[in-house]
Design a protein that fits this description.
By secondary structure, this protein is an alpha/beta fold. It has a single domain, classed as Rossmann fold (3-Layer(aba) Sandwich), CATH 3.40.50.2020. Strands 4-3-7-8-9 form a 5-stranded parallel β-sheet, sandwiched between helices. A two-stranded antiparallel ribbon has the order 1-2. Strands 5-6 form a two-stranded antiparallel ribbon. A hairpin with a 7-residue loop joins strand 1 and strand 2.
C-alpha cells in the first residue's frame, strides 16, 4: 500500500449537516492530482488480478471513486442510483438510515451471473449503503468479491454491520477512529 497521507487531504466540517456532526469532506483529496491518483492506484492495485469484472459505486460519491477504479481494473462500472433515476427494469435494495430508510437501484442488465463484483465508495460509515450494493449483486446472480473505500469511519463500527451479511474483504485506505 502507498505511504501517501490521504487523511491530510480530508477536511473536517463541524456541525454539518446538523449540530454535533463532523462531516468528512473528501473533495480536496479527489481534487488533488497526486492524492487522487494515489488513492485510485492503491485501491485498484489491491484488487488487481482478482478477476473483478464489475465495480458498483453508490450515488453519488461512489461514482467518482468507483469509475476510475473500474477503468484501472479493466472492467465495467455499474452505478447504483436512488429511486426514479434509472429508466429500465431494476434490482432494488432498501437499507436503514439513522432516521428512516433509503433505497438503491441497478439496471437488471448491468450484472450477469458470471460477473465478479467489487463495491467501491468514498467512505463507509454505518455500512448500510455498502451492504445494499452487495445484496444487489447477489440478487443479479453475480459473485460478490469485496468492498473498497477511501475512508472508514471505524468509530461507527461499519465492519460489524457488514459482517452480519458478508464475510468478504473490506479494504479501506485509512480509518478514522
Amino acid at each position: 500500500m502507498s505511504s501517501f497521507d490521504y487523511e491530510s487531504l480530508v477536511v473536517d466540517i463541524p456541525d454539518y449537516p446538523e449540530p454535533g456532526v463532523i462531516f468528512k469532506d473528501v473533495t480536496p483529496l479527489i481534487g488533488d492530482p497526486q492524492g487522487f491518483a494515489a488513492a485510485i492506484d492503491a485501491i485498484s492495485g489491491h484488487f488487481m488480478g482478482k478477476g473483478i469484472t464489475k465495480v458498483i459505486g453508490a450515488e453519488a460519491r461512489g461514482f467518482f471513486v468507483g469509475a476510475p477504479v473500474a477503468y484501472r481494473l479493466g472492467c465495467g462500472f455499474v452505478p447504483a442510483r436512488k429511486p426514479g433515476k434509472l429508466p429500465r427494469d431494476v434490482y432494488a435494495e432498501s437499507y436503514a438510515l439513522e432516521y428512516g430508510t433509503d433505497e438503491l437501484q441497478v439496471h437488471q442488465d448491468a450484472l450477469v451471473g458470471g460477473d465478479r463484483v467489487l463495491v467501491v465508495d468514498d467512505l463507509v460509515a454505518t455500512g448500510g449503503t455498502a451492504v445494499a450494493c452487495a445484496k444487489i449483486a447477489e440478487h443479479a446472480g453475480a459473485t460478490f468479491c469485496g468492498f473498497a473505500f477511501l475512508m472508514e469511519l471505524a468509530f461507527l463500527n461499519p465492519r460489524e454491520v457488514i459482517s452480519r451479511d458478508f464475510s468478504q474483504e473490506i479494504f479501506s485506505l485509512f480509518k478514522v477512529e
